[in-house]
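1st attempt posting a full record on here, be nice pls
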Amino acid sequence: MSSSVTSSSSPDHQLTVLCLASYYKGTDFLCECHRQGCRTLLLTSHSLEHEDWPRESIDEIFYMPDVQKQWKLEDALLGVSYMARTENIDRVVALDDFDVETAATLREHLRVPGMGDTTARYFRDKLAMRTKASEEGLLVPEFIHVLNYARLGEFMDRVPPPWVLKPRSMAGSMGIKKIRTAEKLWAALEILGDQQSFYLLERYVPGDIYHVDAIFYERELLFSIASRYGRPPMDVSQEGDIFTTRTLPLESEEAAPLLALNEKVVQAFGLVRGVSHTEFIRGREDGKLYFLETSARAGGAHIVDLIETATGVNLWAEWAKVEIAGGKAPYQAPTPGNDSAGLLISLAKQEHPDTSAYNDAEIVWRMDDKKHHVGLIVKSANPARVQELLQNYAQRMRQDFFAWQPPLERPNF
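the predicted structure (as tokens):
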């Protein structure tokens, strides 16, 4: 299941890749860059200085001052420009969703190849991506920019509650609120004050949530896999529960329309090369598939580990190869396996949860490196067995380990 890339750099030029990470993630990406012979630079937050970065695969680490891991764009521009006095930076890669716009601005400023500011908006700004999806004829939940009060009033008169108030540039479920009455919306907007325009309001569509994770190279879809969440991630985050997701068989009737729709979304949004994580919902009332959001990054919450378990494809490593190839060298995607896999993750009341009582042969991964967290990945050739284990383990974990705290709020401006 190996894949390959032929370097296009000249023998006397070592490709230099600058990776941005305001969260601790992407270690496999960094290691793959090193394996491919790149000079690998990491720009991260001071607060992450003591994380277990693969330092043997990183040539230089630079640290940014941060408040809640939030960098000032001007500081990043000035810092990286100063770095460029001695470093020939060939690629700039955002390893976390919060760094996508910063990376795009740096590419524009340094004139290095890759996604620029305009395209990055479609993969970060929830208002921009919904507007673009609508223009492309994709089905999206009805939405409105939180901007003009008269139009907001008309929207609430026309679209029945509940509604979802969403920050335009947060990641995951951060900052999202379910609103059930107009009075509660106006109260929420009063609290937001001058930051209201950084939000959108959309119709809440109950249903099953899916994600599709993919590799694109020169606008061609080379790999994709669909998965189905247990409960919607927003409900898990805000109400508390075990986070679960499971892969769908590549040729299944459930997966086929998701894979086709994902290809249409990402190509319409202009992703030339890289990986994507896109979410859809199948409405409970009408059975239709709605586009929710997309991102030009690898999925979080150990979804990359889930996909590697099922297919043998490590999206972090493949993403590194795609970035290095840069449209100037051939890239061959790996041939995926077709096992089924399921993932469970939860906050735990114990500092170091003991999962030894979970001992089925299908368990292939345990989360053992993060305090007050518990997690498992199971694998089987039989999708029904994976679903059975997820249901059983989720019930047991609620009794044995489960803890919950409200989701973090993070500035998005």
